[in-house]
Amino acid sequence: MFGVVRRRVASGGTSSLLGQSGLKIRSGTARVSSVVEKEVAFSSGGCGNIRNFCHTTPGRWINSKPIRDIFYQEASIQTQRHSFSSESGDSVDVVVPPLAESIEDGTLAKFLKRVGDRVNIDEPIAQIETDKVTIDVTSPESGVIVKLLANEGDTVEPGHKIAIISRSADATTHVAPSETAPEKPAPKPTQNVSEPEEKKAPKVETTKTEKPKAPAPQSSPSEPQLPPKERERRVPMTRLRKRVATRLKDSQNTFAMLTTFNEVDMTNLMKLRADYKDAFVEKHGVKLGLMSGFIKAAVNALQNQPIINAVIDGDDIIYRDYIDISIAVGTPKGLVVPVIRNADTMNFADIEKQINAFAKKANAGTLSIDEMAGGTLTISNGGVYGSLLSTPIINPPQSAILGMHSIVSRPMVVGGNVVPRPMMYTALTYDHRIIDGREAVFFLRRIKDIVEDPRRLLLDI
């Protein structure tokens, strides 16, 4: 339609054509100058309004110019249709999806597909590593990857193009990696041709030059003999590792941390587990572990000592009337801390199911940021790795962290007799700015009493 208007006007069409086409020209001023700008509004139902469509000059109706305006409604429709891709004919651009509100960029950890590989819609193509989680970049369309626009290790932001997919290409016809292969052996024949000349040159030089002397050792006997640099490797830190390092150092610089210890006799809790583990699995479909017992004990202890569940915010103390327990989980990529929400409303089975689900997600690297945000108390079980005793570091913005350790059979005095007992050391690191030693010791003692006699949970004593 635009082409018809331009041809008719340029050939001297009258204003009746403009009236039929729905074009209205409004003069911005009554004076005549060399070029007087006019505003043309095209009121079609499909494209919306377009401003500054053309300019008018004296003696002519319209000074024809190329249409360079962008149809904003059309562009917005395309954007909404492909939120994570941009189309250009047969090709589709793969872009980084939105990461999270608090995360502005990420690191392109690795490509799961290469040039020439065929991908299906929603199939993962690459992985973006952020400060907390690893996010998959999926294919917006089915097709063949024809080009990679980013390298592994690059810092990318939401909307950044990382690959191009062709809908109609055949995976067997794309030989982009092999096309670059002949380029490498190409210079080899030239090197072979020049080899005789290169060989002759050193021969002439060897006849004229003397044999180089061995350099004298410069290091003194007092200097330490360091290993050669060839035996060292420098590997950049992952974003998750850098984030963990930053948070732990901030915690050490912010909190007035103090750790108190106690030991727990695990006999009764282990007996409870052994007696009912089969019936527990049969009814709930999940194994009964020791962690659920400690979480129930920690919930009861927090209800008795609410200051442990509080946190400092500026000059105020925030008392939280809910209990969210964070579980520290070690993965090959680093430490993650998913949160069990409203643990005070859950029973043993609910807690075990949640722990099992978090463990699977942590190992697969699919934990979301929401699942790791918040928390009022962290429990770290170093005993699964054989740790006998440790002083855990507080996980901000919490005020305390409970450390569990390995169970070791030790001689204990029971009823005046020395008997072997399965014992565990427990540690509570707390922020001494808000928690006094009295509350910290009472909290840890309450956990000891419940674990050693789980019947206290039933009787609420």
Q: What would you say this structure looks like, in words?
A:
With 461 residues, this protein is an alpha+beta fold. The protein folds into three domains: 1-81, no CATH class; 82-173, OB fold (Dihydrolipoamide Acetyltransferase, E2P) (Beta Barrel), CATH 2.40.50.100; 240-459, Chloramphenicol acetyltransferase-like domain (Chloramphenicol Acetyltransferase, 2-Layer Sandwich), CATH 3.30.559. It has eleven helices and 23 strands. Strands 13, 16, 19, 20, 21, 22 and 23 form a seven-stranded mixed beta sheet that branches. A five-stranded antiparallel beta sheet has the order 4-5-12-10-7, with no helix packed on it. Strand 17 (329-331) and strand 18 form a beta hairpin. It starts with a helix and ends with a helix. Its main location: mitochondrion. Residues 91-166 form the Lipoyl-binding domain. Belongs to the 2-oxoacid dehydrogenase family. Pathway: Amino-acid degradation; L-lysine degradation via saccharopine pathway; glutaryl-CoA from L-lysine: step 6/6.
